[in-house]
Specification:
globular, 7 helices
Length: 227
């Protein structure tokens, strides 16, 4: 989360300086600088994700050195999941905190003809971003470990695309639907990257059904028979 905050601070400074040095009366230029700031923020987030991967690799080597069996007690997949989830949570907090503050009032959403679904769509968008950062973390770490740099490019490209789609708001249908499609596809990708398979899903469901049947049989045996 700290690494994400540092990337946000640097992106904010770059955008702030760009705005100060530009013509503030030019609306098109300011909108272009906003898009530029969002793109820089995405690139810095991914750069700091890579830096965090390098830091964790060094820490992993140190843990393996001092352990009794010569292996680290934390796997790379666990670190990737925790890292992505931390990025997602802090990103979600910053995405929704100002919205929650504005929801206190005064005023009513949509009273001047704007969309009345502003808060609910913001909540769904924040949820998608938290999940996406988690999935991106798993894919990113695996790509760095296996040196499959084309996967890194796809992660960065999907992050840029997701960020760019938010500029379609308040046309929420054009932004939320593609973002959730990206989230679903990225989630499946992360699932298979982490070693998941459809066979494991079916095996898990079959074990669950067997456990449920055993519980039902045990409960039936506990019921006393009536004469």
């Amino acid at each position: 989360a700290f690494f994400w905050l540092v990337s946000l601070l640097l992106a904010s400074l770059i955008w702030f300086v760009s705005v100060r040095l530009s013509d503030r009366e030019d609306a098109k230029l300011q909108y272009g600088l906003l898009i530029f700031g969002a793109a820089v923020s995405v690139l810095l987030q991914e750069a700091f994700r890579f830096a965090y991967f390098k830091l964790l690799k060094k820490a992993d080597e140190g843990l393996a050195t001092i352990s009794e069996d010569g292996r680290s007690p934390i796997s790379l997949r666990q670190m990737a999941y925790v890292s992505g989830l931390s990025f997602g949570i802090i990103s979600g907090v910053f995405s929704v905190i100002n919205i929650l503050a504005d929801s206190i009032g005064p005023g009513i959403v949509g009273i001047q003809g704007d969309s009345p679904y502003y808060f609910i769509t913001s909540a769904f968008l924040t949820m998608a971003l938290v999940l996406l950062h988690t999935f991106w973390g798993v894919i990113f770490f695996d790509a760095c470990e296996r040196r499959r740099y084309w996967r890194l490019g796809l992660v960065v490209a999907s992050h840029l695309l997701t960020s760019g789609l938010t500029f379609l708001n308040p046309w929420y249908e054009a932004s939320l639907v593609p973002i959730f499609i990206i989230t679903l596809c990225t989630g499946l990708w992360a699932f298979f990257t982490a070693g998941g398979s459809f066979h494991n899903i079916l095996k898990c469901l079959s074990c669950k059904q067997e456990d449920d049947s055993r519980v039902m049989m045990y409960s039936a045996l506990q019921v006393p028979f009536e004469d």
